[in-house]
Automatic annotation (TrEMBL):
<dbReference type="InterPro" id="IPR027417">
    <property type="entry name" value="P-loop_NTPase"/>
</dbReference>
<keyword id="KW-0813">Transport</keyword>
<keyword id="KW-0547">Nucleotide-binding</keyword>
<dbReference type="InterPro" id="IPR003593">
    <property type="entry name" value="AAA+_ATPase"/>
</dbReference>
<dbReference type="InterPro" id="IPR003439">
    <property type="entry name" value="ABC_transporter-like_ATP-bd"/>
</dbReference>
<dbReference type="InterPro" id="IPR051782">
    <property type="entry name" value="ABC_Transporter_VariousFunc"/>
</dbReference>
<feature type="domain" description="ABC transporter">
    <location>
        <begin position="3"/>
        <end position="233"/>
    </location>
</feature>
<protein>
    <submittedName>
        <fullName>ABC transporter ATP-binding protein</fullName>
    </submittedName>
</protein>
<dbReference type="InterPro" id="IPR017871">
    <property type="entry name" value="ABC_transporter-like_CS"/>
</dbReference>
<dbReference type="Pfam" id="PF00005">
    <property type="entry name" value="ABC_tran"/>
</dbReference>
<dbReference type="GO" id="GO:0005524">
    <property type="term" value="F:ATP binding"/>
</dbReference>
<keyword id="KW-0067">ATP-binding</keyword>
Length: 246
């Protein structure tokens, strides 16, 4: 089990946004992608989800190559997007059923898991609700519940912490830690480093579409000359300075 991204170059037009990205995530590893606005985090994620076609390079998950076997590849991934995507005409219960069907889950086991997740995020009494009645945070929680319900080898999470109440943030951090303990792979893009630090130990720093450094929190701190007492957020000031002088 491993996610391998090799020499990935891509973007939206002929001009590449991300350049020669090399990443590997092992089972039981949570990797954070961090970088300034526009660094290419979401673009990298869109490539991993198969929403953009690479100009160069390949993405392989558990020996399945995205370009060659897209359906098999995508079935191994669950995704929590930055902006919740829900079907306006489906109830919460129907969203869960759709997830169970799409990922071919055992219904009995899946409902047990779904009920635990719903309770955790205080959605257990809202099964008949349509998305129109959900607040922004509630919609985000539905995305979290369906992603963790899918129980895939790889979970891709794009900026999950904004808009969640502190209780939901802490529940999400616990779920990520448990998934890591169960040897799942997590890839998460975020700017909220104080929250990320609680669940994520390895980071890739993207700068202008390229990976500047990849490693443990200690490695990253060392690379940017940060002391243990410095806030991890200081990285953003350094990246900004680097860009201004590039
Ligand atoms: N749909 C699009 N079409 C063309 N260019 C895009 C599109 N989406 C993003 N870009 C460009 O790609 C570059 C990287 O954007 P991306 O969204 O990957 O950054 P990011 O690191 O996720 O930023 P943020 O922290 O703001 O979410 C930016 O220069 C952006 O303008």
């Amino acid at each position: 089990m491993v996610l391998k991204i090799e020499h990935l170059t891509g973007g939206y037009t002929g001009i590449p946004v991300i350049k020669d990205i090399n990443l590997e995530i092992q089972p039981g590893e949570a990797l954070g992608i961090i970088g300034l606005n526009g660094a290419g985090k979401s673009t990298t994620i869109k490539h991993i989800l198969g929403l953009l076609r690479p100009q160069k390079g390949k993405i392989v998950l558990n020996s399945v190559e995205l370009i060659k076997q897209p359906t098999e590849f995508k079935r191994q991934i669950a995704y929590i997007p930055e902006v919740p995507v829900l079907y306006e005409e489906l109830t919460l219960k129907e969203h869960l059923e759709l997830t169970m069907m799409s990922y071919q889950l055992d219904e009995k086991k899946a409902w047990k898991r779904a009920n635990e997740l719903l309770k955790m995020f205080r959605l257990d009494d809202k099964l008949d609700w349509m998305p129109i009645y959900f607040s922004k945070g509630m919609k985000q929680k539905v995305m979290i519940v369906t992603a963790f319900l899918a129980d895939t080898d790889l979970l891709v999470i794009d900026e999950p912490f904004t808009g969640l109440d502190p209780l939901a943030v802490s529940n999400l951090i616990d779920l990520i830690k448990k998934a890591v303990a169960q040897k799942k792979m997590i890839l998460m893009s975020t700017h909220i480093l104080a929250d990320a630090e609680q669940a994520i130990s390895n980071y890739a720093v993207l700068n202008n579409g390229k990976i500047e450094v990849i490693g443990s929190l200690t490695d990253i701190r060392k690379h940017y000359g940060l002391n243990e007492s410095d806030s991890f957020d200081k990285i953003y000031q350094i990246l900004n300075e680097e860009q201004r002088h590039a």
